[in-house]
Specification:
Blueprint (H helix, E strand, L loop, with lengths): L4 H10 L9 E4 L4 E3 L13 E4 L2 H6 L3 E2 L19 H11 L8 H8 L3 H12 L3 H19 L4 H7 L5 H12 L3 H7 L9 E7 L6 H10 L6 E4 L2 E8 L2 E9 L5 E7 L6 H11 L6 H8 L6 H6 L11 H13 L2 H15 L18 H5 L8 H16 L5 H13 L3 H11 L8 H7 L12 H6 L5 H14 L1
Parallel strand pairs: 2-4
Antiparallel strand pairs: 1-2, 1-3, 5-9, 6-7, 7-8, 8-9
């Protein structure tokens, strides 16, 4: 656990939202576990136990609270532990690695034995990988029960359970009652068929305006837009076309996510990608405490707290955009991305977003495309990158992407760092050019003396530092 019991106790008594999702509270008299922000009356200290994850509380025999709803707590940052293996394992589990496989296969992908992997998870998270994965599915199913009109059978499939019977058994084990009874406790909203609205929590503060400006400047015409306080885009989920809209929920530390999708089976995948894209597992207090020790960054953090990493819906989009940015001005890059989407993307039509008319083409399409209209060197780079992406769609694509791109396309290091930050959700990427832009030492001039050692002091949060520096440069 990251915190001593005194810190946890103070967070519980103060209902401190900064600890939401970082600790869970088991109440021995009721057998229920809660979030630190739970509005229920405080239990006596001797009746309280603290856990580093919801799965750890579940593994200890506690049931999720129906009042504070642990299923909507902010996620745990995968990079916040001391174990790289655990961090990578959490990411793979979030991507569904244990939905259709077992712990032995996961351990093999991570290069360790299953026994060692279980030991690491128990040490850092208090629960086994299998329990982490099962808890993730159960909590998501509970959110669908409370917030959608999906049938129980549809929820079972959407949450990754193989059968209704299996879902009922596991759900009863976790909640002490069947899903049908929990469904009767809630009042799902009235929405059109194929439309879902979910609320995803974050730890405050959250600089939504800065994130939206970043996405707006890079939005692909016809595929995505970022204006009017909301981000919208077309999506492909297991071959189904859909629409995603994300905006802050007024008065709450949550984002309101509206999804249009013809089939619900892909909802867990869509929500997982949305959480990553909008950096909802970030811990701003931890990040800003570390970066704020540098006098260069401290005033930027105070002026604009809660900066989040702008992730990507699709790695292909970010890779193509970054390679075009090397060869074109930003306005020309957006024009070329729009051209690619118009010529090679699939047409869509949504009344809620009439300006979004295409999905972005998959890597397989671009690898074989003529790419007429793109400058020759840009077309060659796009095709080469698409071919790399085609070969990396398996389990190890994250580990191999940057090396394969370097070999096939020879991009600048700053381009690879940008791709790492957005496509790989790397909190510790840092394009060297970011410093030069921010300090006015652009062009062929050298960066200030000693900058490398200074930047090393920002680890493991260099991506956030780069965003603050680039924001300051844009504002100046």
């Amino acid at each position: 656990m990251d915190f001593d019991e005194q810190t946890c106790e103070q967070a519980r008594l103060n209902r401190d939202a900064r600890f939401d999702g970082r600790i869970f509270i088991g109440i021995t008299t009721t057998g229920v576990y809660c979030r630190p922000v739970c509005p229920s009356p405080h239990a006596r200290r001797e009746n309280v136990r603290y856990f580093p994850s919801a799965a750890a509380a579940a593994e200890a025999g506690f049931r999720p609270c129906l009042r504070c709803r642990p299923e909507v707590a902010p996620g745990t940052p995968a990079w916040n532990g001391t174990s790289t293996t655990v961090s990578r394992g959490l990411r793979l589990i979030a991507e569904g690695a244990l939905d259709a496989s077992d712990i032995e296969a996961l351990a093999e992908r991570l290069g360790v034995t299953s026994r060692h992997l279980s030991r690491l998870f128990l040490r850092h998270l208090g629960a086994s990988p299998t329990t982490i994965a099962r808890t993730r599915r159960v909590l998501f199913a509970k959110q669908l029960l409370s917030d959608t009109n999906l049938t129980i059978a549809q929820i079972a499939m959407a949450a990754g359970f193989g059968s209704i019977r299996r879902f009922n058994d596991v759900f009863r084990q976790y909640y002490g009652r069947p899903p049908s009874e929990v469904r009767r406790l809630g009042r799902p909203p009235s929405l059109s068929e194929g439309e879902y609205v979910l609320r995803l929590a974050f730890r405050p503060p959250y600089d939504w305006d800065a994130l939206l400006r970043f996405l707006a400047a890079r939005a692909i015409p016809g595929v995505e837009s970022a204006r009017g306080g909301a981000y919208r885009r077309t999506i492909l989920a297991e071959g189904c076309q859909g629409l995603l809209e994300v905006r802050p929920e007024p008065g709450l530390d949550m984002l309101r996510v509206r999804i249009q999708l013809p089939r619900p089976e892909s909802l867990l995948q869509v929500v997982t990608q949305t959480r990553a894209m909008f950096d909802l597992a970030a811990d701003p207090e931890l990040i800003e405490r570390h970066l704020g020790a540098d006098p260069l960054l401290a005033p930027l953090l105070r002026a604009h707290p809660g900066r989040r990493l702008p992730g990507a819906w699709d790695a292909c989009e970010v890779v193509i955009q970054a390679l075009l940015d090397e060869r074109c001005p930003p306005s020309r890059t957006r024009e070329l991305l729009g051209l690619i989407a118009e010529r090679y993307g699939a047409p869509v039509k949504f009344s809620a977003a009439p300006d979004l008319t295409r999905t972005f083409p998959r890597a397989q399409v671009l690898a074989a495309a003529g790419l007429d209209g793109l400058p020759g060197p840009a077309a060659q780079a796009v095709r080469a990158a698409a071919r790399v992406l085609c070969t990396l769609e398996g389990a190890t694509w994250r580990d191999q992407l940057l090396g394969q791109l370097r070999a096939a396309v020879q991009p600048e290091d700053s381009t690879l760092q940008y791709i790492a930050m957005r496509a790989l959700d790397d909190p510790d990427a840092f394009p060297a050019e970011g410093w030069r832009v921010a300090t006015g030492a652009g062009g062929a001039q050298r960066a200030p003396a000693g900058w490398q050692s200074r930047v090393q002091g920002w680890r493991p949060w260099r991506s956030y530092a780069a965003l603050y520096l680039l924001d300051a440069a844009s504002a100046g």
